[in-house]
Amino acid sequence: MGTVRAGNLYGTLEMLILRALELSGPMHGVGVADFIGTRSEGLFRVEEGSLYPALHRLQAKGLVDWEWKRTEGGKRAKFYKTSRKGQRALSSELESWVASTRAMLSLLDVTVEEAK
Amino acid sequence: MKRSRLKKLFHWDRFGKKMEQSLDDEVSFHLETRIEQLVAEGRTPEEAREEALRQFGDPEVVVRRCRRIDQAGVKRRLTRDLFFDFFHDVRFALRSLRRAPGFVMVAVLSLAVGIGVNAAVFTTIHAVWFDPVPGVTAQHRIVDMVPVVRGEDYWAWAYPDFEAVRDANTPFEFLTAWAERDATHGTDEGGRRARVAYATSDYFDVLGATPFMGRGFLSTEDEGPGQHPVAVVSFQFWKDRLGGRSDILGHSMLLDGTPYTVIGVTQEGFRGARINLHSVDLWVPLFQHPDAAGENSVFGARNRALVQVLGRLRPGATIDEARAAVRTVFATLQTEYPETNSDRSVKAVSYGRFPAQNRDMDAIGVIAICGLFAILLLIICGNLAGVATARAATRETEIGVRLALGSSRVRLVRNLMVEAAILTAIGGATGIGLAMVFMTNVSPMDLNITAPGATFEPSIWTLVLSLALSFVAVFAFGLLPALRFSRPNLVSALKDDSGVGGRRVGRLQRYASSFQTGTAFLLILIAALFFRSLSQTDESSIGFRPDGMAVADFRAGGPFIGFLDPSEEGYATAEEGRFALVDRLLESVGSVPGVASAALSTGFPMDRYRAYVEVNPAGLSSADSTGTTVEYTRVTEGFFSSIGAPIQLGRDFLQSDDRTSVPVAVVTISFAGILWPGEDPLGQQFAEAGADHSPWTVVGVVGDVASSAVTEDLPQMFVPLRQMRDPVFVLLVRSEIGTETTALAGSVRDAVRSLDPSLPIPRLIPAGTLVAWATQEQRTGGQVAGGIGLLVLFLSAMGVYGVVALAVTNRTREIGIRIAMGATRGAVMRRVLVDALRMAAPGLLAGGVLAVGTAMALRSTLLGLSPVDPISVLSAGTLLLGMVVVSSLGPALRASGINPMEAMRRE
User: Fold this and answer.
1) Which of A26, B160, B776, B785 is the most buried (most CB within 10 A)?
2) Three-class secondary structure assignment of B413-456
3) B contact residues 650-709, partner A, Cβ 8 Å cutoff
């Protein structure tokens, strides 16, 4: 079955990033990429070249805050975390995502089990 | 330097190098982490590096994409921030302004004055200079031809010169010459003055003025002196004086006693070719001019200038062609008539509302006036900047804290700018509004501007200019304080500089303040001198008693008295009739109840009609033409009691002092003192220098009375009116004690009318009014200088306050230390005040010297008051010093109230 490029579905990459930051707290870019890869059990592989532009888009929209901090290894890295505005945006985004996915599934008349 | 400051001002550094650096760091961190992970998995560093790059893609591309996104984001945020900040700033500024109503009032008022005055001046100049002449069409094709005599602009042409140009080949379609004078428009109830233009037939064609009714002149009416008594009347004249009758054409009216036929009425608003103080009432052919007839016609003489000339260019012709053509004609005239025309030429200039004579000089004057008022606005802005800075400086600690906490420096600067903008908006709107109200309610005549008919309607240009000025004002008065706070090291500046009293208020500001104080002193001192000189015109100094005295005005109706000329009233032919008129007038007016005395004379003190003669004691050689210049007046008996200057020695004139008796004279004390120092003047004889008619014998002496011009102090002589061959006179009356002169007006008028109903109706004018007319210059001078002086006083008070307040704030720590070291509060206050006075001193000194210099130059208008009149100097000086002290009192009090502990804790 292979891996799916995260973000192939339009706009999902930014939602994934926000969700990742919400679930795990402040992370740098590498962390975000790894988190998405791990959480999707290797199914989603984040295209790293697209990750940073996406992060900066979120930053420009004010959906994430950022801060330069030391990693555990002692290196300086730019850590992102969801802003309050980002949290609001994410929850509404998730709602509509879940709703539309449900609709899609019922329309296609398949169950999640089947699809597997 | 400037650039980086600007960048900081607008956060541009946020997406400058720093941003670039952080992007690189971010990408490097990513790649390094991945490489480390891969190496940990057992790859060689080279392999790890390649793999990491493969997963990531081209870092350059990623960085570039991110950078674009960042920049767009920053820009969007900036725009949004600016927008939000703007409202925030306005709210903030309004709040802080509400806490300082005094400052707001001062700022709004002075900006209103500054911008309003500029708007008004500009409107006036625009109206005078650029508005088209009413009733004139295609003005750009009209050429004004100014005669130049010996290199100087002259007012009139000799008519033969005009004829030469008219008959030459020139690019003019029409050419006209005309002369203006006052004539009497006679109707049954007596003559009234009318302004008459005597014009050649092309007059209306040159101006492109079509008649409202009837026609203009025909070319056949250009010839034959006195043979074409036809008149075109102005619309206003037709309405006011001819009753606006629709059948007026063909009707007859009297002009200087001659019947004229009305042939046309001009369009409404047309006032003639020149915008003068008097608009033309009616037009008649040039050769109807009273001096046109006979051998000595003014229009035949090359040496008598009387007419003005305008030409209308043919379509397509240029003013340069006209200039060349006229120059050729004048060159020919110079060779043909070297005696008269050698120094004559003509300057062809564009025609307009503004007088063509000396137009260049006037233009310089106008520009100078504009510049002056613009400088006034700048000074106002400078002062406001000072006050605003002082205001902001009082909040330095707060601002310092805010800056230290990372509050946006930009915001502080913007707050001040927004405050300035709000104040300027209110002030500017008020000023423009006031200017408009003022200008629409004031006619140019009130402003003493020779531009009747000029409309002071607010034009789009006025608005544009005022807006531009307002912008200038915002920057001029917002920027100085703003820049002060945009200093990058403000916090340290706060801590260090305000501490040890090092930084003083800018030298420029101190000089500016001193300069204003000096200017205010100059103006106020001059105003004081003028007003003091007016109060000098009391009875003791003018030598006559205006109280209870009145003069009959026979026709002028202006700020001058009109004389009665018997020869114009049907008493010309019989000499007996003329002198009989004098007797009968004196008799009938003198017998009016309430009249104490009446007299006829060719003048009265302060009448502003000058008549001088040079005299010598009799016996000096008649060839000796130099003598003492004295003013002479012809008077009847009763003159001295009528003006209230009693004879001090000898006798008054008698009815018998007439043409059959010896010439006699009454002289003033100073006259006698000059001609016969130390001798008894009575019985002495004197004669006109260089003339050989029989000498006058002194029969009486009066005290020194004011001469015709208040500004001159001439010895005077009086001779009997009855010894004059051709008397022209005014009527003087003195009322009995307890009777107002105004109460006599009716009965004096009736007395004259019962004598001869065809005589002009006399209008009694109280001598007090005449004195006021004569001293108008002083009054106006005093009012103007005083008005501007008070304005500048107000401005300089603001300037002084700004400078002193800022100085106190800047030296808070120093003052604190002084107080801690035992300086008394009084001593601190004194120090601040002395500093303020020391700052103002050079300006006051210079202003005082200039004022005295100006007063010396104006000495003649000061009515004998000394230019260093101690009362004026003292009062103006006290006022100015008081202003300096009062303006610096606030800051001084604050200085004395400084708490040393707090002041030092600021470190």
Assistant:
1) B785
2) HHHHHHHHHHHHHHHHHHHHHHHHHHHHHCCCCCCCCCCCCCCC
3) none
